[in-house]
Design brief:
By secondary structure, this protein is an alpha/beta fold. The chain has 3 domains: 2-196, NAD(P)-binding Rossmann-like Domain (Rossmann fold); 205-288, N-(1-d-carboxylethyl)-l-norvaline Dehydrogenase, domain 2, CATH 1.10.1040; 293-427, 3-Layer(aba) Sandwich (Rossmann fold). 43% of the residues lie in helices and 16% in strands. It is built from 16 helices and 16 strands. The strands form 4 sheets. The protein has a 6-stranded parallel sheet, with helices on both faces. A 6-stranded parallel sheet has the order 13-12-11-14-15-16. Strand 1, helix 1 (10-21) and strand 2 form a beta-alpha-beta unit. The protein starts with a strand and ends with a strand. The structure holds nicotinamide-adenine-dinucleotide. Nicotinamide-adenine-dinucleotide (NAD) is lined by residues 6-12, 29-32, 35, 70, 83-86, 97, 100-101, 119-120, 149, 151, 153, 260-261. Nicotinamide-adenine-dinucleotide binds next to helix 1 and helix 5.
Amino acid sequence: MKICIIGSGYVGLVSGACFSDLGNKVICADKDKVKINKLNNGIVPIYEPGLEELVLKNKKNNRLFFSTDINNSIKQSDIIFICVGTPTKNNKADLKYVFKVVNNIKKNLNKYKIIVTKSTVPVTTGDKLEAMLNSKKNKNKFNVVSNPEFLREGEAIRDFLYPDRVVVGTDSKKANNIMKNLYMPIIKKRSRYFQTSRRAAELIKYASNAFLATKISYINEIANLCEKSDIDIKEVSSGIGLDQRIGERFLRAGPSYGGSCFPKDTRALVTTANRFNTDLSIVKTVIKSNNNRNKLLTSKIEKIMNNNLKNKKITFLGVTFKAGTDDMRESSSLKIIPKLIKKGSLIKYYEPTGYKDEFNKLKNIKYCADINEACKYSDLLIIYTEWNEFKQLNFKNLVKKNNFKIYDMRNLYSPDLMKKKNINYFCIGR
Ligand SMILES: NC(=O)c1ccc[n+]([C@@H]2O[C@H](COP(=O)([O-])OP(=O)(O)OC[C@H]3O[C@@H](n4cnc5c(N)ncnc54)[C@H](O)[C@@H]3O)[C@@H](O)[C@H]2O)c1
């Protein structure tokens, strides 16, 4: 099948590379010329494990193409996946990029096409897109299908090729057959193909993200209680997670959740619910709890430093919202670091995916390409993300001075072992 992916970011590029690897001809289109130039020159503009190999292999085999010519890419294709960003504006999903793409599609409907929203879009967006595309000329020439994406950055290729489920929202038999055919190699492997109504598919995505965000906030709050009651959150998480009704994933206490999905999707879901006169009080509380967590962890850092951050050298190991990605969107480091700088701290950071422009406007923050340089003479090391390379560090060798402290926000080390080594170690919920 000829597929066009519009929006070649984290979701679009992974989807395009995987669909082409399954034998389809795929054009990944994007309005960003720099991105497309890089891809045409064999450079993958984002960090995602395994993606570069997959892109290069399928590009070489003439199954994967990159273009800024959106109109022509649409004309040539049978299935159009909309994978552009849907950020929130005033807590509401901003659909301007989606609408722009749909206007492009409207002008280029030269034969029957399936138009698929893979971007996360609020309930009734599919109805709106259908209304936009409807005209006498376009009768029977398209179906609008919702096919939300559940991949996680850092695990994106595995998640795409071995998903727990593929959700397809459509009432059209024809569109459903084509979509099922497209996903057949994946469904055969393991996962379940779940056809539903378009609105239900749209809501399934938001409801899933809100549920996962709730799980994280819940365990973070239980961790707060553990800290006050001399209980180890890791033991509690394991004890809870063994209950199959709950499951052990997403029960690791840490910083507030961030990234390009959970914060914006929880906010957008509340706004959608308001539109339907429904009070999602649980989701609202989760958003509040998550925002409070940034303040809580900043206060904890101050406390660790005896309420004196003036000229204190603080090193962040990792600044992205989690390990395995270069994505800085809504990482809580963007909230915590400026607060520490305001109180007089001198920040250095080591980040496996490199320098981050997001801190450009701040003073007293330095990127170190080498972990030794980042940690040397630090007063406090903050383990902010859970990269493997942070899991077996020799802190004394790295810091090269006495009386440094460690704040392990991912609980990577054993407090007992740190005590034995005479290292001043703090962690989450233990
Ligand atoms: N990142 C994730 O982990 C993830 C997971 C599941 C779902 N989603 C959803 O998928 C969607 C895309 O997310 P992302 O992280 O891939 O975003 P992204 O910002 O990485 O990529 C979006 C791309 O769309 C391009 N674009 C915007 N307008 C365009 C237009 N008119 N024509 C062509 N290209 C255009 C941008 O240049 C950009 O390259 C969002 O709705 C997001 O919520 C993301």
